[in-house]
Amino acid sequence: MGYVIGIGVVLFFIILLFWFVPMRLWITALASGAHVGIGTLIGMRLRKVPPARIVLPLIQARKAGLPINTNQLESHYMAGGRVEAVVNALIASSRAGMNIPFEMAAAIDLAGRDVLDAVKMSVNPKVIETPNISAVAKDGIELLVKARVTVRTNINCLVGGAGEATVIARVGEGIVTTVGSADSHKSVLENPDTISKAILAKGLDVGTAYQILSIDIADVDIGRNIGAHLQSLQAEADKNIAQAKAEERRAAAVAREQEMRAEVVAAEAEVPKALAEALRTGKMGFNDYYNLQNLKADTRMRESIAGETPVNN
Fold it and tell me: Are 220 and 154 in contact (CB under 8 A)?
């Protein structure tokens, strides 16, 4: 009876061992020259790390001759990294003669960058095409410039370096500055390579995750005559200002005319008073008064004959 119990206990532990330890994976690693101890596999189970996510990339790395151990891969996995992508990137960089350290590849992966894509772009440069960029030469003619920027990944600056949007923005700024410093748009159309040379001399890839290899002007189109448009707007503004000033002068003249008419009316109102005072003081006789009235009547008749409106006093 005790013999049977002992056999049962042994079978239980064997079954538990095969369930807890991936023996097939252990045998595969052993046969591939990437030996992983059973205790290490048990430790992965206890740390809730899938052994296959560590052992299979380790086998790939050992076959490629990379000096990587399970502790590095396991710690990267526990930090939230993509172990398989990092190993594939290291293998690709080794084949390309770049020999990126595991720590750098892991840092790039944890930073959210695609480390394998970065390695591929280092080997095969990428072409970034800018949209149409509007720039105005000194003669006021707008040019629409489209450029193709050839870049490759700068692995050392990939963590913390600016991306494609920054490169496109800097190239656009360089195009606007270069075209804006040209005396005529014709000189830009005749030698578009001057834009490329001027932009490359500025070192626009500083602080970015890329190295600019070349900048090629793909297309240059003539846009609007910005200078003429601005002159037209200025002329319209000057005209409005002149009209406002003329209206101000006209209003002042009308006001002055009204003031003068008021003064005339006021002066005419004083005439009867002056006549009455002259008659009362004896400075004017009745004969003089009648002569004055006859002169006024004669004046009104002459004005009527001439077609003028007589002035009524």
Answer: no
